[in-house]
Amino acid sequence: MTDTLQVNLGKLMVGSLTMLPSGSIVFAFDKSYLNKSKRPILSQSFFRPSGELIPETNLSRVKLPAFFSNLLPEGQLRQYLAQLGDIKPTQEFKLIELLGEDLPGSVIVKSTEESLLKPKITQDKEQTELSEAYRFSLAGIQLKFSAIAKKKGGLTIPARGIGGNWIVKLPAQNYPHVPENEWAIMHLAKEVGIPTPETNLIPLDQIEGLPDLGALSGKHCLAVKRFDRTNNGQRIHIEDFAQVFNIYPEKKYHGISYDNVANMVWTLTGETGLTDFIRRLTFSIVIGNGDMHLKNWSFIYKDGYIPSLAPAYDLLSTIPYIPKDTLALKLAGHTEMQNISLEHFKKLINKAQIPEYLVLQTVQETVEATFTTWDSQYKNYALNKEVLERIQNHMKSLSLKSKYHRVKF
User: Fold this and answer.
1) pTM for the whole thing?
2) pLDDT tens, position by position, 339-366
3) Domain containing 183: what range?
4) 10 Å Cβ neighbour count for 91?
5) Is residue 123 part of a domain?
6) I want to staple 106 with a disulfide (CB 3.0 to 4.6 A). Which of 42, 128, 237, 277 is the partner?
7) What is the mean pLDDT of the chain?
8) Are 335 and 281 in contact (CB under 8 A)?
9) Which of 190-195's residues contact partners 24+ apart within 8 Å by CB, and which partners?
10) Element (H, E) at 155
11) How many other CB atoms sit within 10 Å of the CB of residue 336?
């Protein structure tokens, strides 16, 4: 028996995912999509270096092709949603059918027939409604849910998880004050000139419909406005850089360097995108963010065709939780944040074949802006003493800071 799922970009059918009797899975573009003179882009990974569109993927055993696998949640969130759907977390074909109505971006995956994958039916109406409330996918491992803003304040999880225009990110179970940390760093990034979505710290008791997920180390969640949805609920296509480079989620820290990312950004988005990328990379080094892996960078296709860097997301300082944390990817062969200097950026410039003056000027301006803004803002952030001190100690230790700023903490 062969199972087939239809793949859409919004209302446009672009292709199909097929699971063969052997269990292998293949994606193929629909002929009508291939015959279009102007096609909205699904992913950069479906183009050959020559610019020709690849009509179908290689067979993938058990797992979905990398682009689609990256649309699914990871870790505890995957376990939780798979349990609600009464399937195994490793059954990616079934999982994407279950979650396919509210994937990141404008991708919609749906069965060509009436689906057998429905949430568990119980005699308890309240329990049935609860089981239907989380049928959506937000890629990543942090516990987060799609939500809708209420007119009188607070947020609520929408029925069946479809249509939310906010992301609710819950406190970590092992690391204290992560929402407060992320809110502070996102605010700092915006002040430095990095595009960010709207964010708010919200007490957990103002979120309706959250399940009991056990002990959480905090009383606030972080609410982030979805940039892949418009105010009226229309979908905007995005793809993260694991999808761009055709890398599976578990390889998001490996195989690709910031040199590769810089070259890709320069090639596809030019001076504007490259400046934005270098600013974010420099900012992450200064504030001690060791988690800017491939899934934490994305392209957004506002018109469906031309990529630009999506607003920054998942920005926080990891140093308070992982002392001496390193960069998620290599920068000119190095990952130690304290030791990164202009010389490393010069090596990145040579490897990525990007403009030297633009990069070095952006690095220096970002270092100065980040230190100066932190000096004026850090007392206003709801960070506990230990988290604050660890961020400050990291900033004092940086090679990048010595020529541009005298730390005043």
Assistant:
1) 0.89
2) 999 999 999 999 999 999 999 999 999 9
3) 132-225
4) 17
5) no
6) 237
7) 87
8) no
9) 191/373, 191/377, 192/279, 192/283, 192/366, 192/369, 192/370, 192/373, 193/279, 193/369, 194/276, 194/279, 194/280, 194/283, 194/312, 194/315, 195/276, 195/309, 195/311, 195/312
10) strand 155-156
11) 14
Q: Is residue 409 one of the residues assigned to a domain?
A: no
Q: Are residues 212 and 250 in the same domain?
A: no
Same domain membership, residue 258 and residue 190: no
Give domain status of residue 406, yes or no: no
Q: Do 69 and 149 lie in a common domain?
A: no
Both structure tokens of 175: 């690391």
Domain-embedded: residue 125: no
What CATH number is given to the structural domain containing 286? 1.10.1070
Residue 265: CB atoms within 10 A of its CB come to 27
325 noted as active-site residue:
no
Q: Are residues 253 and 219 in the same domain?
A: no
Of 195, 225, 255, at which residue does a domain stop?
225
Task: Considering the candidates 240, 259, 291, 325, report the single residue annotated as catalytic.
Answer: 291
Summarize pLDDT for 173-217 with one digit per residue, the tens.
Answer: 778 889 999 999 999 999 999 999 999 998 888 877 776 666 566
First to last CA, the chain: 66
Domain count for the chain: 3
Q: How far apart are the C-alpha atoms of 65 and 31, rounded to whole Å?
A: 19
Of 241, 265, 270, residue with least CA distance to 254: 241
Q: Do residue 211 and residue 286 come from a single domain?
A: no
